[in-house]
Design goal:
Number of domains: 1
Structural class: alpha/beta
Number of strands: 7
Number of helices: 6
Radius of gyration: 15 Å
Strand content: 15-25%
Distance between the termini: 27 Å
CATH topology: Rossmann fold
CATH class: Alpha Beta
Oligomer: single chain
Strand order of the largest sheet: 2-3-4-1-5-7-6
Largest sheet: 7 strands, mixed
Order of helices and strands: EHEEEHEEHEHHH
Length: about 190
């Protein structure tokens, strides 16, 4: 079985380490742990490899967050991957920092990356892991918050939360979404 695992974020040094780039951070950790390296390819940075009996294609779109759907559609078609083997990792301000939530489908929840993917794929029937980044910002400052950097106390727990998210991705690929949701949601 082949899976497309997509981490959402924005390219460029000015976005490195921001809350909105948590998808990139998770994929970087997953790739490192799986001995997978990224190459600059069409629509993004792509790495391929195996996790036990699952073949994985990792994608960090270079299209910027709001146009991620073009990259996702291209790599799904190129690698002949069905929507049930697509997994998107993104930030979520509706969840407290570090909370992980895997769902088989759902709304975009106001997330522009998810909104664009749903629009391009004409469906919301694909799995997503939402990585909580919190919502400690004044009214009207959401953009500054998600494009800002994590607080020092959050960074103290970052590796643990990112590693748990990587475990969730492995469980999704090797044991299925139901197992992954039952064993990792709300941890």
């Amino acid at each position: 079985m082949k899976y497309l695992i997509v981490g959402l974020g924005n390219i460029g040094d000015e976005y490195d380490g921001t809350r909105h780039n948590i998808g990139f951070r998770v994929l970087d950790a997953f790739a490192k742990a799986s001995n997978i390296s990224f190459e600059d390819r069409r629509y993004g940075f792509v790495g391929t490899g195996r996790v036990k009996n699952a073949e994985v294609v990792l994608l960090k779109p270079s299209t910027y967050m709001n146009l991620s759907g073009n990259a996702v559609r291209y790599w799904m078609n190129k690698e002949n991957i069905d929507p049930e083997r697509l997994l998107i990792i993104c930030d979520d301000i509706a969840l407290p920092f570090g909370r992980l939530r895997l769902r088989p489908s759902g709304s975009d929840g106001g997330h522009n990356g998810l909104k664009n993917i749903a629009s391009v794929l004409c469906s919301q029937q694909w799995a997503r892991i939402r990585f909580g980044v919190g919502n400690d910002f004044p009214r009207g400052s959401q953009v500054d918050f998600v494009l800002g950097h994590f607080e020092p106390e959050e960074l103290e727990h970052m590796d643990e939360r990112v590693n748990l998210c990587c475990d969730m991705i492995r469980a999704f690929c090797l044991s299925g979404i139901t197992f992954a949701m039952n064993n990792y949601n709300n941890k």
